[in-house]
């Protein structure tokens, strides 16, 4: 398969790093974004000629255009975009300030939307793909997660709207399940106060029983999809292990 070009946000660790590793292993080229430069520089050093990056906060208004321009300048095009960066706040709705909601939406919604908007012109040229990383919390309520879950529900809606409006672009959301990442550490360490005990216990049990997913499990599925999208799935909100994605699973 000919080498393609992808932008991946939140690429320094966890799911984003797993997606990046898979795409690089298939000889694709990537433009990476994360707040810390060191892991991104590590990818660049290990894969000469395949990696460029911008270290910075995705809520900065300059980031989307910087990433888009860098991809085109360095590699000539953009075939796909994985919108993976995000933030979790655990606090009951009545106790969550509007400013907290606004800050979380800046990260989880507006900066994601800005990134997609910046890349659309190039994605149309390649009939490319956008994968937005969503969550089961977009569809199911979790006590303490009203800000997070509602922000992911917005992404589901934005993705479906994009797919409906722009038939040349494949746009889906993927919920990656419970992945062994920093976010799970955060849930176990600080979620207990605001979460429903029975729900919190399921996260603790999954960790103790070794049932958390390795980042590569959903990561490889997402990477394979963005590199070779099934166009008739555009507009759908899928779990990483949905039957619709069976052909991308190991």
UniProtKB/TrEMBL annotation:
<keyword id="KW-0560">Oxidoreductase</keyword>
<dbReference type="GO" id="GO:0050664">
    <property type="term" value="F:oxidoreductase activity, acting on NAD(P)H, oxygen as acceptor"/>
</dbReference>
<dbReference type="InterPro" id="IPR036291">
    <property type="entry name" value="NAD(P)-bd_dom_sf"/>
</dbReference>
<dbReference type="Pfam" id="PF00106">
    <property type="entry name" value="adh_short"/>
</dbReference>
<feature type="domain" description="Ketoreductase">
    <location>
        <begin position="4"/>
        <end position="203"/>
    </location>
</feature>
<comment type="similarity">
    <text>Belongs to the short-chain dehydrogenases/reductases (SDR) family.</text>
</comment>
<dbReference type="InterPro" id="IPR057326">
    <property type="entry name" value="KR_dom"/>
</dbReference>
<protein>
    <submittedName>
        <fullName>NAD(P)-binding domain-containing protein</fullName>
    </submittedName>
</protein>
<dbReference type="InterPro" id="IPR002347">
    <property type="entry name" value="SDR_fam"/>
</dbReference>
<keyword id="KW-0521">NADP</keyword>
